[in-house]
Amino acid sequence: SYPGRPRRVLADVSFTIPAGKTVALVGPSGAGKTTLAQLLMRFWDPSDGVVTLGTTDLRNYQLDDLRSRIALVAQDTYLFNNSLRENILIAKPAASDTELAQAVELAALSELVKSLPQGLDTAVGERGTSLSGGQRQRVAIARAFLKDAPVLILDEATSHLDALSEQGVRKALDQLKADRTTIIIAHRLSTIRDADMIVVLDDGQVVETGTHADLLNNRHLYARLVSHQLGGAR
């Protein structure tokens, strides 16, 4: 439960994410997906139970140490009124020019950098208003590549991007997920079919776990959510 709120946001939630695997958190709005991700980052601590990284209770980590092990690509990327370079280097201020260039390349930002009047030293405006939604999301991906943390939390909403931007962002995200333990907060179920495990939440509880195919065959909540989204897309 949140401080000052007696109702539990999550209850009896238990699952294990194997190292190097991709797990998607799925469920209706308010099911507890974002709260789980916030627990992993220690924005909150659980009122009961433990969250562990490896075998270590997250509460035993210094916050800076814990968060150095986790990269977050959020739905809305906050950019400061500074240069593109400084906005990426937030993830690793002491990074070399070579490391920065590699992160820019991997995040598919190279064409943007070439088009800017001062390249990486071009100011992006307050909250990055001079960049498109897709470009801002690629900056977040570049930060994650530069940070090179073993755990990735991906708030995977790309529905506000046009098709071309989404294609570029998704390709960069696929590269970013490789060889990392990845937790996806899934908003569009079509994007998480290949997850190693899907955890379905409803009203703060885990109601199903399995692969995309397994859960479709179960014909419970996940199958209904997929059917609803496919129906809405027609």
- Which regions contain 5 or more consecutive residues with pLDDT less than 50? none
| Backbone shape | globular
**CATH H-level superfamily of one domain:** P-loop containing nucleotide triphosphate hydrolases
The number of helical segments is 9
What's the Cα radius of gyration?
A: 19 Å
Q: Could you give the order of strands across the largest sheet?
A: 4-5-6-1-7-8
Estimate the strand proportion: 5-15%
Pattern of helices and strands: EHEEHEHHHHEHEEEHH
As for the CATH topology of one domain, it is: Rossmann fold
Protein name: ABC transporter domain-containing protein
GO molecular function, one term: ATP hydrolysis activity
Subcellular location: Cell membrane
GO cellular component, one term: plasma membrane
Describe what this molecule looks like in 3D.
This is ABC transporter domain-containing protein. It is a multi-pass membrane protein. GO terms for molecular function: ABC-type oligopeptide transporter activity; ATP binding; ATP hydrolysis activity. With 234 residues, this protein is α/β, with parallel strands linked by helices. The protein has a domain at 22-80 and 150-232: P-loop containing nucleotide triphosphate hydrolases (Rossmann fold), CATH 3.40.50.300. Helices cover 37% and strands 15% of the residues. The chain contains 9 helices and 8 strands. The protein has helices at residues 33-40, 63-68, 84-89, 97-106, 110-115, 133-147, 163-177, 212-218, 221-233; strands spanning 22-26, 52-53, 56-57, 70-73, 151-155, 181-185, 197-202, 205-210. The strands form 2 sheets. The chain has a 6-stranded mixed sheet, with helices on both faces. Strands 2-3 form a two-stranded antiparallel ribbon. Strand 5 (151-155), helix 7 (163-177) and strand 6 (181-185) form a beta-alpha-beta unit. Helix 4 packs across helix 6 (133-147) and helix 6 runs parallel beside helix 7 (163-177). The model has no long low-confidence stretch (mean pLDDT 88).
